[in-house]
Write a structure and sequence with these properties.
single chain, Rossmann fold, 2 domains, 5-stranded parallel beta sheet, 5-stranded mixed beta sheet, 10 strands, 19% strand
Length: 254
Amino acid sequence: MSKTLLVTRPLSQGRSLCEQLQARGYVAHHIPVMEIEPLQDEASLVRCENCFANLEKYHGMLVVSLNAAEQALLWWTRYPLLSARQVFSVGTTTADFLQPAPCPEGLSPVVFPRPQMDSEGLLALPELAPEHVQGKHFLLLRREGGREMIAQTLRARGAIVESCELYRRRAPRQNAKSLQDCLPAVEGIIINSAESLENFLSLAGDIPVAGKVLVVPGQRVADAAGRAGFQHIIVAANATDAALLDAVQAVFAI
C-alpha cells in the first residue's frame, strides 16, 4: 500500500521532490509552511542597490540559500557579477541554480562543500581558511534575521564581511486548514529547517503529529524536532532531493 508523505517546502521548491516521490509510488502532498517575501521597503532596496552597484569591491559572494540566489539573480540582471569574483554556496541546489543561469555571465564554478552542505561545511572549505580570507572583502547574501555564524566566523578569521538581506520568511496562515485536513492521512513529513518546523507546528494547531515520521536534512533540525516531541526522526545526508529521497526510502521502502 502506498505511503502518504507531506512536503512542506516553499511553493516554488517542492514540485520536483513531489514528482520524484510520486514516480517511486508514494502519495505526495505539497503544502508549504514557509512563504518567501522579497524585501521591498525603501531602506532595504537602497542597501541592496549599494551592494550590487559596487560588486567590484568584493573578493567573493556567499549565497546561503536557494531563496537568496533567486532574489540575487534579479539584481544581477541589472548589475552583472564580474567573472573574477568567486561565489560560494551552502549546497549543490543553490550552486546548480546559479551556475547555468544567464546572469552572471562568465561566472567561475560556484564553490560549495561536500558532503556536509550547511554553514559549518561552508566554513570548512579550504578557500575560506584564515590564510585565504585575511583582509578580503565578502558579500553575504541572506534573509532578514538570518544566522550570524558565517559572518562572525569569517570576521574572526580577518575577513571584512558585509551582509545584504534580500527577503524574509513567514508562515502562510492561509495554508492552515489544508494542512490540518491533510495530516490525519499523512505518515511521513519532510521538513527542511528549524523555522519550517516551527511554522509547521503552528499551522498544524491541535492535530497530533509527534508520532509521525519526520524527515529532516541535518542534525540541527533533528535536535529541534526532538525538543518538539517528535519520536521518529530520520536525518538525511543533506537537503537535496536525492538525499531526502534516500532517507524516505530507507524508512518507507516500497
